């Protein structure tokens, strides 16, 4: 069997913050740098305040956009009152990728110990688009990309990866 060819995916990056702009968005930039270094395409980038309806609306826009395969958000996954990114993501998910949060916690524990318990990182699928919600720290974005997403968004990764099932994510919609 011949080795698989790399398939670049188109990834939109959303930073959720009441205080950040593009110039001081370190977490979003960590993701952009890693996405590009891995050979993927940055399809879009946005910064929104911690407002559940606005976040969900932007996610829906990207889900409807055929030029976006994956959305990665950073910020708003904590426990405070303004942290509503997880809820916004769950407002749009068709299916949740339950193990993502567990695996992220395992990866995080190697770096920050039991403080990893405070993360509510989550992932899901909607409209054939993968959605990942990461904490807002640059370290958490590095951990999620380096420890999970870099491999799962690489078609060459075995024994399985997210890219190989991408064409089948919206098959229930096509049957209607």
Topology:
Blueprint: E1 10-16, H1 26-37, E2 41-48, H2 52-64, E3 70-74, H3 85-92, E4 95-96, H4 98-112, E5 122-126, E6 129-134, H5 138-152, H6 162-165, H7 171-175
Parallel strand pairs: 1-2, 1-3, 3-6
Antiparallel strand pairs: 4-5, 5-6
Helix pairs in contact: 1-5, 2-3, 4-5
Q: Can you count the helices?
A: 7
Please identify the structural class as seen in this structure: alpha/beta
What is the CATH topology assignment? Molybdenum Cofactor Biosythetic Enzyme, Chain A
Q: Report the end-to-end length measured between terminal Cα atoms.
A: 36 Å
Major sheet strand order: 2-1-3-6-5-4
The helix/strand order is: EHEHEHEHEEHHH
What portion of the residues fall into strands of 2 or more residues?
Answer: 15-25%
Give the CA-based shape. globular
Q: Kindly report the average pLDDT value.
A: 93
Largest sheet: 6 strands, mixed
CATH class: Alpha Beta
Task: Return the domain count.
Answer: 1
Provide the helix percentage. Answer: 40-55%
Number of strands: 6
Key descriptive features of the protein:
176 residues, 6 strands, alpha/beta, six-stranded mixed β-sheet, 41% helix
